[in-house]
Structures are given as C-alpha cells and as structure tokens.
Amino acid sequence: MPSVLIAGASRGIGLGLATAYAEDGWEVHATTRTPDKPGDLGKIGGDITIHRLEVRDADDIAALSQAFEGRGLDVMIHSAGVLRGVSRDEMMSINADAPFDVVGAMLPALERGEMRKLAILTSQMGARHGGGMPSADYGASKCLLNDRFREIEPEWRARGITSVVFHPGWVATDMGGRSAPVSVNESVSGMRRVIGEMDDSDAGKFLTWKGSEHPW
Fold first, then answer.
1. Can you give the chain as a three-state secondary structure string?
2. 149-166 residue pLDDT tens
3. What are the residues whose beta carbons fall under 8 Å from the beta carbon of 115, sequence distance 6 or more?
4. CA 26 to CA 192: how far, in whole Å?
5. I want to staple 173 with a disulfide (CB 3.0 to 4.6 A). Which of 12, 94, 110, 193 is the partner?
6. Which residues 6+ apart lie within 8 Å of 179 measured at CB?
C-alpha cells in the first residue's frame, strides 16, 4: 500500500487528510503534539501510526526521521500551522521555519518512496501579488514560507521530489471559522485529487485546492 505522512493531523484539514487516506487503505503516518491524548485522530480506523511531533522540537523531528530509517515514504503533507494566539516571532517560527526543518529531515524517506510527492499548506494571505510582504503576522509568515519554498524547491526537484505549496481554501475549521465557505471534505478531496495527478511539470507551483495556479 502507498504511504503518506501528515504533519499536523490532530484537527482540521490535517485530521481530514488522515481520515481520507486511511479510509482509502493507505498506510497513514500522522503527527500530533499530544499522542497520549490523540482525540479524534485516535478514532480513525485502518493502518495508521501516530507520531509525536512538536514542529519546533529538534528531538521530535529527529525521532520522526529515525522512525522511517531504511523505509520509503510516498507522499508527505505538511499541514501544521498557527493563525493566532502566539507572538509574531513564534508564528514565524511555526509557519515559516519549522516546515523546512521537518521536510528536510524526511527527504531521505521521500527519496526512497515510489511517488516522491510533497505538499506544504500555505495560504492566499501570503501572496505578494507584486507588492510587498503582507502586514498581518499570519500573512507575513505564509509569505515568508512561500519565498523560502521557491528558493529551496529546485534542490528538492534535483533529488527527484515533486513538491508544491497549497492554498487549501478558506476552510470551516477551528482556525478558519465555522462560517467559512469551504468544508474540510471539499478541501481534502480537492487536494488529494491534485496530489494524485501531480507530475514533474507541477514541481514548484503554488496551487489552490481546486488545482489552479495561484499568483505569488
């Protein structure tokens, strides 16, 4: 069975992704900061393994990498992020720095996989649209994420990995608000379809959950 790692799977979009892949028979690896209290993540059936991961913790990242030592990973989706409730520095660390630390540690496993596909969740709020960096903390953190992705993605491509960043939509989650127009199922289904259809020509793109290209 194909394998997928979802970083940040305890709730919202990440939980939806873990559920959908597990229901389709994938080997699912899902991370949470509290594996001893997994909540809804612990209720998912199928072939699922829960890993501890605080995305800023070097020991957690190393342990996650070691869990895949000698093993391949087909798809990785980095969904972990924060919208509010932390300082600007913390938001930058979680949203803009941590994804590259986690992905960097998992690159060997992705190289050993057959599909070699990687997706990082960003936001349309991080788009510059030809202007400067967004002023709001969240938008600025996602803008920095996008900038760093464009800088490093050619290195990942050279290693045979097809990677994209996704705007998942304005999704009805605790983060997005329950009145948001896109359901978790819609966002997850769209991104899964796009990931399934991705090929080398998509490497380095900023995509929406519907599969269209989003301006940087």
1. CCEEEEECCCCHHHHHHHHHHHHCCCEEEEEECCCCCCHHHHHCCCCEEEEECCCCCHHHHHHHHHHCCCCCCCEEEECCCCCCCCCHHHHHHHHHHHHHHHHHHHHHHHHHCCCCEEEEECCHHHCCCCCCCCCCHHHHHHHHHHHHHHHHHHHHHHCCCEEEEEECCCECCCCCCCCCCECHHHHHHHHHHHHHHCCHHHCCCEEECCCCECCC
2. 999 999 999 999 999 999
3. 2, 74, 75
4. 12
5. 12
6. 172
- What is the spatial distance between Cα 197 and Cα 39, in angstroms, rounded to a whole number? 32
Nearest of 2, 41, 8, 42 to residue 24 by alpha carbon = 2
pLDDT tens-digit map of 71-109: 999 999 999 999 989 999 999 999 999 999 999 999 999
Q: What is the pLDDT of residue 131?
A: 74
Return the ∠ at Cα 21 (arms to 122 and 48), rounded to 5°: 105
Domain ranges of the chain: 3-208
- Identify the architecture of domain 3-208 in CATH: 3-Layer(aba) Sandwich (3.40)
Tokens of 26: 């994938």
